[in-house]
Amino acid sequence: MNRQGAITHGVSALMLAAALIGGAQYYQSHFDLLTPWKGGGYGMYTEPHPNYRSVWALGAGGEGAAAVRLFPRPAGDLAALAGGVIPRDRQIAILRQAAYLRFFPRAAEAARLQALIGAPTRIEVHELRLSVAHGEIRTRRLFVAEPAR
Amino acid sequence: MTRLPIRPWQAVLEKHPAVLRALIAAALAAHLVGTAGGTLPPLTWAMLATGALALVMPDRRIGQALWTVLALAFAARLIPDYFRAANHEFVLAYFALLMALLWRAEPFWPHAERFCLFMLALLMGLALIQKVSSPFYMDGDLLGQFLLQRDIYGMLTPLLIPGIGEADIAATALRDRVLADYALSAGSVTPLPPLPEGLAATALAMTYSSIAFQGGLEVALLFRRRLGVVLHLVIVFFVITVYAMRHENVFLSLNCIMGFALTDDRSRGMRVIYVGVIGWLLVTYLLGYRPALLI
Description:
The complex is a heterodimer.
Chain A: H1 3-31, E1 53-58, E2 67-71, H2 78-82, H3 88-101, H4 107-117, E3 122-131, E4 136-145
Antiparallel strand pairs in A: 1-2, 1-3, 3-4
Helix pairs in contact in A: 3-4
Chain B: H1 8-11, H2 17-36, H3 42-56, H4 60-78, H5 87-102, H6 109-132, H7 135-138, H8 141-148, H9 157-160, H10 164-180, H11 182-186, E1 187-191, H12 199-222, H13 224-227, H14 229-245, H15 249-261, H16 270-287
């Protein structure tokens, strides 16, 4: 292959990669939980912003246990959930991981968050939709990770 | 007939590879500096230095090697956390890879033009598909929410939709209450306080106008040779419309770069406009300056 041919093929490969990434993002945002705002599929401004997803941690008691909101703006007693005082560095790591989790809630990312909290914890991601057309705020539980055994 | 050498300012009006390369390099640099915040981390400095060195390197082989390193760095930043990366960061990485591929290409322009046409069609086409396949968008809820919370045209909407300010305050308070309550947040339907008349209809009209416009842009790309300057006016109109609503300067500058690459002899006058718009978008992005007239 001459140089011109190599360049043409290289540009074609780049175009194909862009199309495949876009297609994969479309699949993951429509048939999985990836937010359309991220990931190279150009779905920003089609669904609620990821800031409308909230991340919650519940003690081993499940739905009856006190819920701690980790994202947005932490609310609740995280120390009680973790069974003692949490060093500041670990608190920051927990909140950062919770913020990451909202973009694409998956078991592996949730397990990382559970490990950071360091106690049996149920992790949930919720989504809020503000509908002007229907005049309502609708919420739903998007993702649940049970405590690791 | 001997052709006179092109002066720097005339290069903008010609299909000069150096101009397109400089525009892409400027967008990449603005993104690196802008996302780093106040103090640039060592990796950002290293990437900026690599790009600057590649631009001034007289030996084009070494220049291409440096661009390859830079492009791989852009790609490497994306891969581990691709689900956190904004869409324009992917386009920037593609452009960095394009620079590496085409650094020594002669002729340069046909390859760049082919890539930019494809990327613009892909970007607009996928965005259109994402919109049409989203009931939230098609019901007018996305733009309705933006209008209600004055995330778009915040200065303008109170003049056109009376009572939107009060509705915004009430809806935001309700939203925060729902978000703060585990049981409400986990699955509930809560009626919104009364919304101003005309809000839902305005949002729906804007939604369908946006769909029609984006579809029109796709068609215009198909007939770009016949349309000449009209295609570029449509692209610039798209850029201005989004600019008036959202702080997406780097993404918009990439649209202008792709438009610039698609200019031909019939639309050569648009090149200066594109360069001016790209310059404005990137400089104001770095300065954090947003004229508050419409937003």
